Amino acid sequence: MKDERLPELDILRIISILIVMILIHIPNDYAYSYYIESEPYTIFLFHTLGIKVAMGSFVFLSGFGLYLNKNNRKINTFEKLFTFLKKRFLRIFPLYWIALFLFLIFLEYLDIDFLYILAHVFGMQMIVAPLFGSPILTLWFIGIIVIYYLIFIILSFMGSIKRIIPASIVILFLFAFLNVFFGLIEYRFFYYYLIFILGIIAANIYTSPLFNRIKEKLKDRQKAIPLILALCFAVLSFVIYLLLAQLCYTTFNLKYGTNHLRLILDQQPGFIDSASAILLVDLIIIFYIVFTIPLFYFFIGTLRVLFPKKKVSSIFSIIAYSTYSVYLFHRVFLIIYTFTLTNVLQIDIRERDNLYLVLLLVPFIFLFSFLIQKAADWVLNLPSRYKSINAINKE
Q1: The whole model's pTM is what?
Q2: pLDDT (0 to 100) of residue 227
Q3: For residues 152 and 161, is the Cβ–Cβ distance under 8 A?
Q4: How many other β-carbons are positioned within 10 Å of the β-carbon of residue 10?
Q5: What is the pLDDT of residues 283-302, one digit of tens each?
Q6: Total Cβ atoms within 10 A of residue 84
Q7: Which CA distances in Å does 317 have to 5, 153, 320, 325?
């Protein structure tokens, strides 16, 4: 099966980064907080779970995307390993290093321990974070992704998915051992690890001959059947998601006096209780993903009735292309913008009526991030262009 662009996954990326900005960061730090007027459960559903489902979606998409690429499914030679590391390095680190430099200045991390900065430079901050304190805001996620990518190399070497699953469990217990006995590995690594593995498993199922045969049979009989099934699946998953969210909210508050997973783990409830709490949140993330992807599939299928296939796919692909840069730089954009509004234009952004002024920046953040990503790709592609020009000249 050839690699294909799945617009429903692009939409999930876009929605996830919008959740991070509009439901988490903007009301928390940069504008009027509409959560002041909200009920506690509403805050839990949109804010507390919001960041979990958004970051969990990013992690799932990372695992899914890695395995979807045929070249990544069995990294068993030095050549394949070098190609994988080079591609991931160029994708992650150049822009990440720029963001890290800007964060140190704009978020005033100038007094951070030099060794901890060095750990951030190599994307290893989540391994040593318990020894040095909280990692730099936002960029902690890059530290998790770097570790997951390194783990993926080991899992890919296993080849068969039947070997990958038990190997991933062994690796999880190894990291738990490092956490318990050596105080290494930041807690958020454990939040999303199983979601990353689930992404790999989902890609394995998606690329399997059986899944493709079922999909083709459904399309051959009636094109509307996959869309109807997707919508029904989305509705059912959404109901289960809401039930699990309510269960989580009630259970956590009654048992621990808080619904924040980090605060629960800070109470050191023991291995069984900690694992159960993390698994419950992971289950919520899973049903959120299972709800959103079929919903977006139905949405895309409906749009394709009205618009050409390429046009529908390309719109979301272009927007999703910028999401990595949006994630890295949105805080910096918001800091500069809110500083201008507050200190230059003397506008009180904590006033409810002025919230829209901060929200207006969101589409521009996507535009600026798109240009940043394009510029970065252009620079990174210069060596290959230079080689092509030299080859043509020699001919």
Answers
A1: 0.93
A2: 87
A3: no
A4: 23
A5: 999 999 999 999 999 999 88
A6: 19
A7: 8, 27, 5, 14
